[in-house]
Amino acid sequence: MKTVLNALLFVLLSNMGGIGVYTSQAQAQDSINSNIPSKDSTIAKSNLKTKSIQGYAENYYVVHHRNQFFDQSEMNVNRETPQASLENFILSARNGDYLKASYSLNLNLMPENVSERQIAQLAQKLYIIINKNISIDWDKLSERPDGQIDEIFNKNKAASGKPRKSIVFGKLNLKERDVTFRLQRIKYKTEPPYWVISANTVEHIDALYAEYGPTKMVQLIPDDWGLEIEFLQIPLWKIIGLLISFVIAYVLGWFTMFILKRIFGNSKLEWISSFSFRLALPAAFFVGMLTLYLLLNNLVVFTGDFANGFYTTLLIATVAFGTWFVMRFLDAFFSYMAENETDDIYAEENIEARRVLTHLSVARRIVTFIIFLIGAGIILSQFEGFENLGTSLFASAGVATIIIGIGAQSTLGNIIAGIQIAITKPAQIGDLVLFDGQWGHVEDIGFVFMIVKTWDERRIVTPLKTVISNSFENWSMRGSKQIRSIDIYTDYRINIQKVREKFEELLRESSDWDEQVSPSVQVVESTEKAIKIRALCSAKDPFLAWDLQCELREKLIHYICELEAGLGLSKTRIAVESSDKSDR
Predict the structure, then answer these.
(1) Which of 375, 373, 360, 363 lies closest to 282 in space, CA to CA?
(2) Are strands 194-197 and 178-188 parallel, antiparallel or unpaired?
(3) Tell me: the pLDDT tens digits for 111-134?
C-alpha cells in the first residue's frame, strides 16, 4: 500500500502536463498497462526514407517502390475505397488485430527491415491518437474507388463531384504546426490503385504519440489491480477516478468561496470586502471546473467518441467560468471606482464628476464586451471547421442568416452609439435631460441603452441609437442655471406697473432666486378676450427653478385676484342687444 501511495504522489507532483490518451480492445474502450506502447520512437529516425511517391497521375499517386514487409497476395482486406480502407484500420484496431490494421498504412517511408512488432505498435499508437483526438466524419469519406462525392448545386441540376486522390480526415497541432491525417490513393506498377493512410501521416505517428499518448499514471498502474472490470464499456477505475475528481473539484471550489466570503469578505478594507463578495461565486465555479479539467485530462483519461465531446464540454465550461470571473472582476473594479473615486454627480456645477462617471460606465461595458468576445472566440475555436462559419453564412441566403445579420446590426449599432456618446458627450451620467416630454436625471448609460430617472421616480429606458439620432434637451450640458417663465392671462384694464413692482418684491424675498436675471414682467400677447403677461425668474439649478416658478405663480395669481377687487382677472364679455318688441 505504501508503494502505491508513493507512486500516486510521484505522479501528482511530477506529471501534471500533457494530454494523455489510451485505447481499447473493444469499441470505445481502453488498453491498459503492458498493452500500452511506450512513448519512445518505434523506429529510429535515421532509418526512415525520404520519398514515398515518385510519380503523378490525375486520379492516383504513382509509386515505383513499395515496402515489401507484407505479402500483398495474402492481404484479405478491402482498400478499394477511402471509407473501406479506414474502416479496416479502425475495426481491426478495436479488435486488437493491429497487424491487420497496419494493412491500411503506407509504409514506404519505413525501413525494409522493420519488424512485425514495430508495425503493429505503430498501428496501435495511431489508433490511440485517432480514438482520443480525431472525430471522423464518415459522410465525407467516399465509398467510390475514385474518392468522388456527388454534389448537387440546385434542385434542377445534378453534377458529379471531382475525383480525388487525397482526402483529409483529421488534424492535430504538433509543436505550433498542424499535422494532417490524410488518406491517399496510390498505384504500384500494374496493380489496381488502392487507398492507404499516407506515408507522411505514418511518419508523424511517434511524434504525435509522444504528445497525445497516455500519461505516466496509466503506465504505472499495476496489472493486478483488476482494471479489466468495466461498467458501460468504461473501466471501473476510471468511473471511480471521475467521482473522486468531482469531489476534489467541489471541495476546492467550496474552499475558494469560503475564503473569499468569510475571510476576505470581513476585511476592514472596503474594496477588499466588496471585491470578495462579488467574486466569490464565479471564482468558486472557475477553480472547481479548472481542477476537474486538469485531473481528468492528466490523470483519469477517457478515450473514444465519448471523450471528444466530454473534454470539449469540460474545456468550454472552464473557459466560460473563467470569462465570467474576469468579467465580474472588471465590473467590480469599475463599480468601485464609480462609487468611491467620483464626487457627488448631482452637486452644483459638478460637471467633471459626471464626465468621469460617464467614461467609467462606457469603459466598463466596452472592456466587458471585449473579454466576452475573447472567451467566445476561445470556446468556438474548439469546434473544428468553425473558421468556415462566416463563409457558410454568407453563402446561404436563408432566413436564419438574415435574422442573425439584423440582430447583430442592431447590437453593434448600439455599441458604436455608446462609444459616440462617450466621445461627444451629448449626455452624461447625472445630467438633467428632457427626453420625449419627460425630464429627469441620466441614471446610467449602459451597453446598449440609457436609463433616465424621472422626477416621480420612474425609469425611462432608451436605446443608445435613439439617443444619438433624436433631439433632446440637456439642461446640465453647459451649467445647471435655468430661467423659467410664468404666463398669466389678465384683463385689459389691469395695472401692469403694479404687477411688475409686486413681482420684483416677491422675487427678492425668495431665497431660491440666484439674482442672475433681473426681474422682468412683459405683455407678450393679446387676444380679443385678454392679454398675456409673462414674468421671468432664474435659479441655480432646474429643481430650484421649478420650485421658484410654482411659488411665484401662486403668489402672483393671489395678488391679481385682490388687486382693485379683481378688476384684472380675465373676463368673457357677452354683448346683449335689446329686441324691437321690448322697446315698444
Answers:
(1) 375
(2) antiparallel
(3) 878 888 888 899 999 998 888 778
